[in-house]
Amino acid sequence: MKVLILGGGASGLMAALSAAQDERNTVTVLERQSRVGRKLLATGNGRCNLTNLDLSPVHYHGQDAGFARAALAAFLVQMDPTVPQLADIKTAVSEAVTNCIVHAYPDHIGPVTVTAAIYEGGIVRITVSDRGVGIPDVAKAMEPMFTTGDAEERAGLGFAVMQSFMDKIKVTSKPGRGTTVTMEKYIMPRFSARDSI
């Protein structure tokens, strides 16, 4: 089979390598730059690093809940969610991450870990965890309008928002050891034209 790849960036080169594994394929890569892979030189301060050798979460820092929303949205695209489903999940995750940033580490920046997994039957499970101060009374913290922060700045609605946008939410916490929020959402498969063929 003749395979034509448009673009000789990282994705195009990976696609070409994958297609070339089948010896029956003839692979051609078209690139508008003077040579393929040139865009890779822009990464890693010109050293062309494709990945870190150690992918530990301690190497990634930030205080931006927006990054978690965007990364999660990109991951969930494979499930073909509706815009409202995606908005619900992004809002709940944003609340969970913001809670970690504001409440888990009141006097310093600390690690926040977000994981997402897709299970059979259209279930998405998202876990947001920290190693911060913890919550002494989870039931009280989940009451609407309760906040440990400045009542003038915080509405105390974080957990209520998460509960309203997700199908399930579970909060576990140990004072001085951190908090984990696990959320689930069912994403119903959408009918597409290819399903009827």
Structural class: alpha+beta
**Percentage of residues in strands:** 15-25%
SSE pattern: EHEHHEEHHEE
Mean of residue pLDDT values: 79
Summarize the structure.
The chain has 197 residues and is an alpha+beta fold.
Description:
The model has no long low-confidence stretch (mean pLDDT 79). The chain has 197 residues and is an alpha+beta fold. Helix 2 packs antiparallel against helix 3 and helix 3 packs antiparallel against helix 5. The protein is 29% helix and 21% strand. The protein has 5 helices and 6 strands. The strands form 2 sheets. A 4-stranded antiparallel sheet has the order 3-4-6-5, with helices on one face. The longest helix has 22 residues, at 83-104. It has helices spanning 10-20, 65-76, 83-104, 138-141, 158-165, and strands at residues 2-6, 26-30, 112-119, 123-130, 168-174, 178-186.
Which helices and strands, and how do they pair?
Elements: E1 2-6, H1 10-20, E2 26-30, H2 65-76, H3 83-104, E3 112-119, E4 123-130, H4 138-141, H5 158-165, E5 168-174, E6 178-186
Parallel strand pairs: 1-2
Antiparallel strand pairs: 3-4, 4-6, 5-6
